[in-house]
Amino acid sequence: PVAAALPPDSPTLELESILQDLMGLAEGNHLPPSAPPPLTQKQFTKKKDEDGRSGQKDSDSSSCSSSGPASSNPKPSIQTQKTDSIDDLLGGLSSDLEKIGVRTTAKGHCAACNKCIVGKMITALGEVWHPEHFVCMVCKKELSTTGFFEREGRPYCDKDYHQLFSPRCAYCKGPILQNILTALDQTWHPEHFFCTHCGDLFGPDGFLEKDGKPYCCRDFYHLFAPKCSGCGESVRENYLTAANGTWHPECFVCADCLKPFSDGCFMELDGRPLCTIHFHSRQGTLCGGCGKPITGRCVSALDRKFHPEHFVCAFCLRQLSHGIFKEQNGKPYCTACFNKLFL
């Protein structure tokens, strides 16, 4: 805001006193002034004939009229008349004062009414103003005793300037008077720029944007980031996609033994990643002899599967060919060994 400058008072104390009296007359003050202005006596001294006798007679009549009722009761026309403008009176007053030795200097013309300024004035915006004419362009409030804002050469009070021209907060839509924060191509009060979900102000981690709205990192990842198929937490940075899911690298392990896939190979069953051993174990395709997966031909016996070369007699360890064997306590035996051992 720019403070309006008030220069010193009028050139002489006498002129200031007369101005105050005239102001009282214009406002309808019917009480006689305490000290009549010099113009009252000066009206009679102007009339003089060329000879001295006539001048003497006029001076006598002047003294009589000043001591008569007119001195105690001013003329009704001066008492009751309310003028629309004091400027005409000031113009005549300035001329009369200069004739009796009181010099007055016009201070310029008011930028609002374009009339001559004789009394107090305001200097602002490179021009001079009557104090009562230097007002806000919107509310017409006088700005002579307060600060003001300027816009395109026009004065505004503090309230109206901010209401018309200050940037608006994207949250509360009110004018921003002091600190301003710019984000997401909008302006904000600093206290109104907070997480859309939790309402907390943003810390050193900053914010993330979704659909033109700001979110703290915690809420953004909780609401919008994909979830790890292993631990169920939000995936923020490094991740991998496998088995129809998104995973933290450390969470992508065998669902049974929880060991990572060191060779990068895994088998999928029901949407869960499995190592080769546990995949075949669930499928029932581990060899009952060596415990390794069966990928080729197999022998099905004793509710298990075997590599053909691993389906052997439990006693002599000879391969049981042609599918002929004897079973005892869940173990296969060839006919000869079975007869020796159990018959």
TrEMBL record:
This is Leupaxin-like. Residues 61-77 have a biased composition (Low complexity). Residues 24-83 are annotated as: Disordered. SUPFAM superfamilies: Glucocorticoid receptor-like (DNA-binding domain). The lineage of its organism: Eukaryota, Metazoa, Chordata, Craniata, Vertebrata. It is found in: Cell junction, Focal adhesion; Cytoplasm, Cytoskeleton. GO terms for cellular component: cytoskeleton; focal adhesion. The keyword Transcription regulation does not apply. Residues 108-167, 226-285, 286-343 form the LIM zinc-binding domain. GO terms for molecular function: metal ion binding. Residues 46-60 have a biased composition (Basic and acidic residues). Pfam families: LIM. It comes from the Eukaryota. One of its GO terms (biological process) is substrate adhesion-dependent cell spreading.
